[in-house]
Fold each of these.
Amino acid sequence: MSSSTVPSGDPGCGSCSGAGYVIKPLGSLAGAVLCDCVPECPFCGGVGQRQVQVGDRVRVGRCRCRMLPDRILLFNRAGIPARHAHSSFSSFLPDKNPGVQMGYRQCQDWVRDYQPGQENRGLILFGGVGRGKTHLLVSMLRVLIMDHGVEARFVEFSHLLSLLKAGYDSGTGEATTLMPLVRVPVLAIDELGKGRGSDWELGIIDQLVSHRYNALGTILATTNYEPKPATGLSQGNLAQPEHAQTLGDRVGDRVLSRLKEMCGFLRLRGEDVRHFMKN
Ligand SMILES: [Zn+2]
Ligand SMILES: [Zn+2]
């Protein structure tokens, strides 16, 4: 059966332009919902299962119309914050800012080259505040999940630290908190290095990154810090410029060097682009 026979969105639809789904803020997260323009499946009547003839036997199989609802479910489990419900490659306007243009294209190339089920080199976007790093990170996740059906998880770094700490405090850390973050094929960490991680928390991050390294998991991330080894500078020293600290200072040199093995680093140059983004 060709995909054209599965019901999909109406290209003339004013809500989804034919995508068949709409992404909008749902509570604190960005949520995907099936668009009203998608007709009921003529093969299964929306049940999601259909009988197929295999040789002289009739088997019950999953109907292909489930693909879009399955991806919607994946998106809604990814934990993308509501404020990024409208972040996509098409809502990012790189032409207004040549300094970010190359980064924008490289993020699109990265998603295009991603091979589901294979080992993929990750990508870490770095540069000053307001370059649209998180917008691009979410844009990549959106394409991975909705166009390619890849399972992914978005987590803000300081939230990741408190999540892991809460898991270990309750005595269930390894199984219920750490392992799901190790197993998800694409883990996207926003604001890597932000917040004051204790030695214990940074030790857990080290474990998480090492486990993902061994499991061939892909890491995407954004950070305001330069991917350089620790300088020994401490946070909050008023005599030094903001972000004089490096990523090595923030996550430790061990984690930094592991990340360099696993990921490419992409600097986003240019002026603050926040005011160029349309929603
Ligand atoms: Zn629609
Ligand atoms: Zn169906």
Amino acid sequence: MRKQILIVGAGFAGMWAALSAARLADKNQKQPVDITVIAPQPELRVRPRFYESAVPTLVAPLQPLFDATGIRFLRGTVTQILPGSKNVDWTDTSGENHTFSYDRLVLASGSHVNRSLVAGAETHAFDLDQLESATVLENHLHSLATREESEQRNTVVVCGGGFTGIEMALELPMKLREILGENAKTRVVVVERGPQPGSRFSEALSEVIVQASEALGVEWLVNAEVESVEANGVTLKDGRQIASHTVIWTVGVQANALAAQIDAPRDRQGRLHVNSELQVVGHEDIYATGDVAYAATDDKGNHALMTCQHAILLGKFAGNNAAASLLDVAPLPYRQETYVTCLDLGAWGAVYTEGWDQQVKLTRAEAKKLKMSIVSELIYPPKADKAVAFEIADPLAPFV
Ligand SMILES: Cc1cc2nc3c(=O)[nH]c(=O)nc-3n(C[C@H](O)[C@H](O)[C@H](O)COP(=O)(O)OP(=O)(O)OC[C@H]3O[C@@H](n4cnc5c(N)ncnc54)[C@H](O)[C@@H]3O)c2cc1C
């Protein structure tokens, strides 16, 4: 009987899980194993670039790569995971329902920003979390040029000063000038709960963020929390109001809802606790990877973050280990000791740090060059060539 590995999701983790499983199955052909991916589109959506321009183009096709590596792709959405019977229910693009029986399941369904945290955000705020919502935001920014000049039109409020909020906010002065004209009096405000810009990062990184924000004229309202979002701006918890036609929400990223269908411990973001083989605790047939996995990266207490950097390697280990468990091959414990950060700081440049203590190694143009090579090359899918793809899909192949 052919064994079935089902991978849910074709993002960074799902794509690499599929390739890594296919690689191991190709090397060990004593037991036939089929690898299937179910996702809404056979494309990698490059979420880290969604603060840039031309959002709909920030995707990479996956069907040629899957064809070259013998991976079956089913276009659809998983609606239900049934661990007891080892089935998942899914719906195809014509709305027809199906059931898929798996021997091993790899959950790689990603994450989403939660806009329901404050009143009015779902209706009035924008986000750059998914291709569709980031496209709506981009179209809205362009439409500002057709509106009458006003303070609201020229002000953008970014709620949350984490990595996504910072990259978006520091890109905006340049973007707004392109849209509204060089002489428009624009204002970009970041609303941040912490006591200073970037205070959740290392002091050195925070200093660079302050320097870049000042140079670009991006304002930070610190020790500030959003109470509600309205059609014409935001109200803060202390009663202050900022008039704006563009409020961008970046706070509260949550694991995809499928994770909650598995009866297992989860962290505050809804990520499933996994062991070193990336099996979900209490479910040895189910692996969680990427943004749905709460995984230790080392023995020092560090855990994977919801980043591509972690999703790519988590994907490779999860796919490899799911296949290893069917092929009588020893699994590889997930390890990712190296952690780097490369943050785009708009027209000022970028900043690159190394280590969990975020030591600043590069800034400005040098860091920007590195950032561009990461987001436009390193994180893209490999060429649709079996030998090339399998070489990189090895979990032990060099990575950052
Ligand atoms: C604006 C922004 C900027 C970012 N910047 C950075 C950065 O600079 N550096 C960095 O490392 N990371 C960054 N990230 C984070 C990074 O994009 C994520 O950590 C990464 O995408 C996670 O990969 P993943 O494969 O787990 O999930 P995703 O890439 O989200 O992929 C999830 C996949 O699951 C599919 N899926 C979802 N639900 C279902 C379902 N029910 N059935 C079937 N398929 C389903 C989706 O369609 C998709 O194919 C950023 C994210 C955003 C939004």
